[in-house]
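Standup notes
- DV: blocked on the single-chain target, sequence here:
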Amino acid sequence: TPGNTDLVNGSVELTLTAYGNGACNPSTDAMTLAITGAALANAGSDAEICQGIAYLIEDASAENYSSLLWQSNGNGLLIDENTLMPTYVPAQGETGDIILTLNVFANGSCTDAVDSRLLSIKPMASVSAGNDASICQSETYFITSSSASHYSDILWTSSGNGSFDDPQIIHPVYTPSPSDIANGSVILTFTAYGISPCENVDDQMNLTIVPGALADAGQDAEVCQGNEFAITDASADNYSNLVWTHNGQGTLSNPLIID
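- DV (later): unblocked, structure below
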């Protein structure tokens, strides 16, 4: 059984002495016992990466080996798999738990060593604020075309001073402020906070706020029987077209103009 010094020296000489009978001299012979260090494997600590990010192993170690080989149960690619610092490149869209195994091939008659580590690949956050839209200044806007996935939290923010009924849901309702209405538009930003270690992502939509139509038919008036009445004090704002109607039996000369 080798002692500690034998292990450090890497070999020991064992001598056999045969003592002769009677007047015969003793006889000796020696052999050298080489002591090969046992193979040791340490694949390193478990780790996490975000989807699509290559991972360099930097904390693995091995001792007393003739060669190394890394293997994985994933669909990605191992680069420099015969070194202590390989790189795992995930396959496109690959997520989930990947086992990386370090095989250490021993010297001499020693047994090979094996160790494994877990690499968790977290899905990247995805977010869409939805399509640009427009509303009338008197309306609120219910955001229905937005979406988000693989997030730890979500948040809506506005470039204006309006408010969301709940800024931490996917489909909130936005109420424009007076300054939003005066500006005529507002940018709504939807942020999805990534699952660690993934980064946050955001997307934006533009909400156009159209001024409401205004109509003023003018002051009440009177006209003598048989005479025509010309409307001169009517006004309208923020309209695409207009029309006059009446509840009498007469006619309007041009019902599609202000006056």
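- Follow-up: The two ends are 117 Å apart (CA to CA).
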